[in-house]
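Thread: zinc ion complex, take 2
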Amino acid sequence: MSEDYSPEFLEEMRQELESQRADLINRSRIARSDLREREATPGDSIDESTDEQGTSTEMHLKDRERNLLAQINDAVRRIDNGTYGYCEECEEPIGKGRLRARPMTTLCIEDKEEKEQAQRRHHAKHPGMFSPTNPTNKKM
Ligand SMILES: [Zn+2]
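Output below.
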């Protein structure tokens, strides 16, 4: 199966990624002000360590945002260098449908599922560690 991505499709994905990036930045601002409002609301069921909870929630948010932002930037870079849309494991085209649903994806559905299972097994043994698989040699 060979599926080529037209410049129009890549442009569509680039715009999608950029709008997601803008969205993410917007949302993180809203989340932060929302957090402050909730902290200021008296009579919340969490009486103890409200501060601690708020801080950890915010840190978690920032972590996730940073992660997502890195994925978005990475995807845009792949569009620029022409590797976008191909599975980084098997180098097969990921498919337009899947890319539209998840523009940042770097794996085809089979490898994604395989990797998730491997990670789950790995995490059970070594939580917090990530073992990279053998890098494939790509001709640029
Ligand atoms: Zn694959």
